[in-house]
Amino acid sequence: MKHRLFFAIDLPDPCRSAVVDLQTRLDRLGLPVMWEEPAKLHLTLHFLGPTPQEQINSFTPGLQKLARSAPAFSLTPYFLETLYRRHEASLVYIGMEGDLTALKNLHKSLAGLLSGYQLPAQNRFFPHITIGRLRRDDPVTTKNFLSRIDAVDIQPLPSFLVDHLTLYESDLSPAGSHYQKIGQYGLE
User: Is 132 in contact with 24 (CB distance < 8 Å)?
Assistant: First the structure.
C-alpha cells in the first residue's frame, strides 16, 4: 500500500490563530476564496507523493539522524502574496522571513536524503504557508480578485521556533484532503 506523504513545518497555536484572524479579515473582502482549515495550515518542506511503507521504514533512521544534526531556527510569516496560474487554482499565501538560510539548508539536506530512495525530486523550494485557493473564474476576474488581495497590507505575524519536522499523510476525497501525522522528528 502506498501513502501520499509530505514533510511539513507545523505552525504553533499563536501563529495559527493570527493566520485565522487574517483569513477572517480577508474574507470580508467578499472574494471567491476557499480558505484552508486551521488544522491544515503548515509550511510544506518536501512533497513525497505516493510512497510504499517499505520506503518509509527505510528512510526513517536517516531522517532521525538528519533531524538531530539540524539546528532549530526561527521564522516569521511576514507578507501576504498571491500566485496566479492561468489554468490552475490560484493561491493566497504568506511568505516567510527569518532564518531562511537554515530553512533552505534543512530542505536541501532532506532532499539529499530522500534522493537515495527514488522519490520525486523537488527542484524548487518556495517557503510559504498557503492560506487559501481562489475558485476558478475567468482570467480577468481572477486577476482583479488577486489585485484586491495584493493591496492588503499585513503586519508580520508572530515569529516561531522551528524545532521539529512532521511527516504527514494526505488522504484525498471528494470532500477535500485530510492530513494525518505519521511521524515527528525533533531538531537539535
Answer: no
